[in-house]
Design brief:
heterodimer; A: about 400 residues; alpha+beta; FAD/NAD(P)-binding domain; 2 domains; 8-stranded mixed beta sheet; 6-stranded mixed beta sheet; B: alpha/beta; 8 helices; about 20% strand
Chain lengths: ~400, ~260
């Protein structure tokens, strides 16, 4: 939307505005989506941003469309997105041919028609691009301000505004607060929103690896005893992004060994699917603690993305779920504006929370369930192997793909 | 915003009703509070008003704008805490809210100020406002007519608040008068579901669409639409269906 298309009076900007807390990929996407819908927004990012240059994000078709709508896809360099044409899931059960994947989705025949199952993008590339877009958008104000707290009612405005607290004890009135401040959301704690956490004593090691064989646009995943390992294709045909979940003890041990020892461990874990691992980038480890807000709204506050639902990273669905949050929220706010409604009203936020429940619950149960099944105990894993063989049946497979592509719940 | 007691020796105001609303207090804007049903009703009321304004005044509604009601003057009679006045103002309408409850007008004024919305609130009755010569494009009485003392006089006052040069529009929402409405809208809503303050309604003042149409006609308002408002599990209320319990009515005001 260009400036001239907009109502020049800006008379619709009553109230105390939309305030997005969190300078991450989710907060940025929310800011861009709402600004494109002509809502003025303020984004607060911490003055000490933690940039994770290593991690990659998987974008499903529904999320791709969303990023396209808000102009991000067009702005990205051509090779920023690596398409996935084939998804291969396997486990380490003793079968006749251990190299046979238990489950595959293969679109490589249609690859030249752009039939990607998903795309992989580096978090840093995406984040930098969005930050640049934020800086130039006339409806977005970016503040380098640490937000330390939340009050359900601003003392000066009572029911008409909630308040954000800054480090220097200022109170910022807000019609609506969108908390996109991540898995350890400060605002979630400040608003007293209860969470369910499942600490299974797992950590994930992330890195980038170079392989002797090309990745052929395959997203590869294998369920090992301690947790799943995944290799996601990168722009360089011989490079992949690694996410390897394991017990905390194993992670601690593997973070200490040198690159050669780590490469040997990787060769073992990957069954040389893409040949030997020849080079390993910087390794980072983080604890995997799925966290799920019971009801992601409070007075004039809504949690989105990891702040609302930090799911297990094994399926690479975290950001897709976050973008689906943004899409649903933007749509509801636009409908509310058409009816002249208060954009932070209780009935609106509750309706949002209600509408997001099916997809979030499905994804949480699916990722948690897969992890639980495969990571612990031999008998359970045999059961899981059978389950996956069963899942290879066409109906179940296409259902899983529908959920994963974001198209079952997205309209 | 004039909050002083103005001359109110009029036929339409029921002092008992006003005393009741004064007593209920200032918590008009607690969405989870005793007025939560009215909050739930508001998006539905807004959709109805927008639809019929666009139908009867296609030229004055700027559809593409974020303020489609810019330039439309509205009086919201019995505005209470301003639950309907605020969304109207957000869409750009020039809104005057009037009520005979001082507590309500105070709550409405305070909230509009806090929400930074330009709305004029006055403690005055419809007929006194009309005799001041105030005229509007749109005259609204939403969930009010079932509280007034003399319905005929009230409808006449409504009609007299319409502008004269071009046909003004009157929109009324209220509760129908039948067994179902009495049981659901009064007893179930007030005592069982606690959706409305107990004693908020007197079922004897409920009015059927047929009676409303006849009485409005006598007052100079030609009602040409009656739409039911039905309870909905998801959003509280939805437009459509027969006018069994809640309903909305629209009519053009005859220019004398």
């Amino acid at each position: 939307m260009t400036k001239s298309d907009r109502d020049t009076t800006k008379a619709a900007d009553f109230g105390h505005g939309i305030h997005i807390v969190g300078g991450g990929l989710t907060g940025y996407a929310a800011a861009l989506a709402l600004a494109e819908a002509d809502f003025p927004v303020t984004v607060y990012q911490s003055r000490t941003p933690n940039k994770d240059t290593l991690r990659t994000t998987t974008i499903n078709p529904s999320a791709y469309d969303m990023l396209k709508d808000i102009g991000v896809i067009a702005a990205l360099p051509a090779d920023a997105l690596t398409p996935i044409y084939q998804i291969m899931v396997t486990d380490d059960a003793d079968r006749d041919n251990t190299h046979d994947p238990v489950m595959t989705w293969d679109n490589s025949a249609q690859a030249n028609q752009g039939a990607a199952l998903a795309w992989v993008i580096g978090n840093a590339v995406l984040s930098d691009m969005m930050e640049a877009m934020l800086a130039t958008h006339d409806r977005i104000t970016v503040c380098q301000t640490d937000i330390t707290g939340y009050q359900s009612r601003h003392p000066d405005y009572h029911h008409a505004a909630a308040a954000l607290m800054t480090a220097d004890d200022r109170l910022i009135p807000a019609s609506l607060i969108i908390a996109a401040d991540g898995r350890n959301s400060k605002l979630r704690q400040a608003a007293d929103i209860r969470v369910i956490t499942r600490n299974l004593g797992q950590s994930a090691i992330v890195s980038t690896v170079t392989m002797t064989e090309p990745h052929r646009h395959i997203a590869w995943q294998k369920f090992l005893a301690g947790g799943p390992i995944a290799l996601m294709p990168m722009p360089d045909m011989h490079m992949a992004s690694l996410v390897w979940s394991m017990t905390n003890e194993d992670a601690e041990r593997l973070m200490k060994v040198n690159d050669e020892r780590f490469a040997i461990a990787l060769d073992d874990a990957t069954d040389l699917t893409f040949g030997r691992i020849t080079d390993i980038g910087v390794r980072q480890a983080f604890a995997v603690i799925p966290t799920h807000a019971l009801w992601p709204v409070a007075q004039r506050l809504v949690l989105i993305g990891d702040a609302a639902h930090a799911i297990n990273p094994l399926a690479g669905q975290g950001y897709n779920l976050a973008l689906a949050d943004v899409k649903a929220l933007a749509r509801m706010l636009m409908a509310a504006r058409r009816d002249g409604m208060d954009i932070g009203s209780r009935q609106l936020l509750h309706r949002y929370a209600f509408s997001r429940t099916p997809e979030i619950a499905t994804m949480t149960l699916a990722t948690d369930g897969l992890n639980m099944l495969f990571s612990f105990g031999k008998r359970r894993r045999r059961l899981a192997g059978m389950g996956m063989a069963l899942a290879n049946l066409q109906g179940i497979k296409s259902f899983a793909l529908h959920v994963a592509s974001g198209r079952l719940f997205g309209r | 915003m004039a909050n002083t007691k103005e001359n109110n020796n009029d036929a339409t105001t029921d002092p008992d009703e006003i005393a009741r609303f004064d007593k209920i207090g200032a918590d008009w804007w607690d969405e989870a509070g005793i007025f939560r049903a009215l909050h739930r009703l508001t998006p539905v009321r807004m959709r109805y008003i927008k639809h019929h304004l666009a139908r009867l005044r296609p030229d004055s509604i700027t559809r593409k704008s974020s303020t489609p009601l810019a330039g439309i003057s509205v009086v919201d009679i019995g505005c209470g805490g301003g639950l309907l006045a605020e969304p109207l103002a957000r869409l750009g309408a020039n809104v005057t809210g009037i009520d005979m409850s001082e507590v309500a007008i105070d709550a409405a004024s305070a909230h509009a100020k806090a929400a930074r919305l330009p709305i004029t609130y006055r403690l005055i009755s419809a007929e006194n406002l009309a005799s001041e010569g105030a005229r509007f494009d749109l005259v609204i009485a939403s969930e009010v007519i079932e509280h007034v003392a003399d319905r005929g006089a009230f409808l006449t006052a409504m009609a007299s608040l319409g502008r004269r040069d071009i046909p003004a529009i009157a929109i009324i929402t209220t509760i129908s008068r039948n067994m179902i409405a009495t049981v659901l809208a009064k007893y179930a809503a007030e005592y069982l579901l606690r959706l409305a303050p107990p004693g908020a309604h007197d079922a004897a003042k409920f009015i059927t669409p047929k009676t409303l149409r006849r009485e409005a006609k006598a007052a100079g308002i030609n009602i040409d639409d009656i739409t039911g408002i039905r309870p909905s599990l998801l959003s509280g209320f939805a437009l459509g269906g027969p006018p069994v319990i809640n309903y909305a009515a629209t009519g053009l005001i005859e220019p004398e």
